[in-house]
Design brief:
Porin; 1 helix; 62% strand; 220 residues; two-stranded antiparallel sheet
Length: 220
């Protein structure tokens, strides 16, 4: 009889341990923002004064999955789609008017191509290690996050089929709020640090992209 109770207790303890981890899934949206001093990704030619290409802000849709393996730490995986844009500089082009036999001879004419704002979607996958300020079970849980990511930028006018992928790190934090037994919401602020895409002239330095978002969470 005692042996049976010990066996039952061992099974219960193992079951409790196996379900000690909590699971979260969230879906939300917000904005991807590029600080003005880090938004430049290069110039039209090798001449620094030839005109600068700049990344511009856009909307962001994201999905996250987190496994909290201890009362104060967790692991998070996610995907985000950002509808950003690329601001191209105004450029000058030369065309030849008339034909080769015209009188007077044909003359070159300089025409200006105005600056444009081209849609530039990007896809992002990321992992973060989470550290909470308060233990599992609290209604409000501030947290810090840090990890790695890849960001695939679609080539302008390529209809998303041709992409250039950049790798980097991310860091930030947020807050999670439990509203009901299995539901809550979260707010995130994260900075993504990566190389600059498209290998343009004078495109040195790092590209920084901020995420400001909110999401609805399902908790288990």
């Amino acid at each position: 009889m005692v042996r049976s109770w010990l066996l039952a207790g061992a099974v219960a303890a193992c079951s409790s341990l196996s379900f000690a981890q909590s699971f979260e899934a969230s879906v939300g949206g917000g904005q991807s923002t590029f600080p003005s001093k880090n938004a430049d990704i290069g110039t039209s030619t090798g001449d620094p004064a030839s005109g600068t290409y700049k990344m511009s802000d856009g909307i962001r849709i994201s999905a996250r999955m987190a496994i909290n393996n201890t009362r104060f730490t967790g692991h998070e995986f996610g995907y985000a789609y950002s509808r950003t844009s690329l601001v191209t500089p105004a450029t000058a082009g030369i065309i030849i008017t008339g034909g080769i036999s015209t009188t007077p001879p044909a003359q070159p004419v300089t025409t200006a191509v105005p600056a444009q704002n081209i849609s530039l979607p990007c896809h992002q996958g990321f992992y973060d290690f989470l550290v909470y300020a308060v233990p599992e079970g609290k209604v409000i849980r501030p947290f810090a996050a840090g990890g790695v990511q890849f960001t695939a930028f679609s080539q302008p006018n390529s209809y998303n089929y041709n992409r250039e992928t950049k790798y980097g790190i991310n860091y930030g934090g947020g807050i999670k709020v439990k509203v009901k037994e299995n539901w809550g919401f979260r707010l995130d602020a994260r900075q993504y640090n990566m190389g600059k895409p498209f290998k343009l002239p004078n495109g040195s330095g790092r590209l920084l992209m901020w995420e400001f978002s909110g999401a609805i969470s399902f908790l288990m």
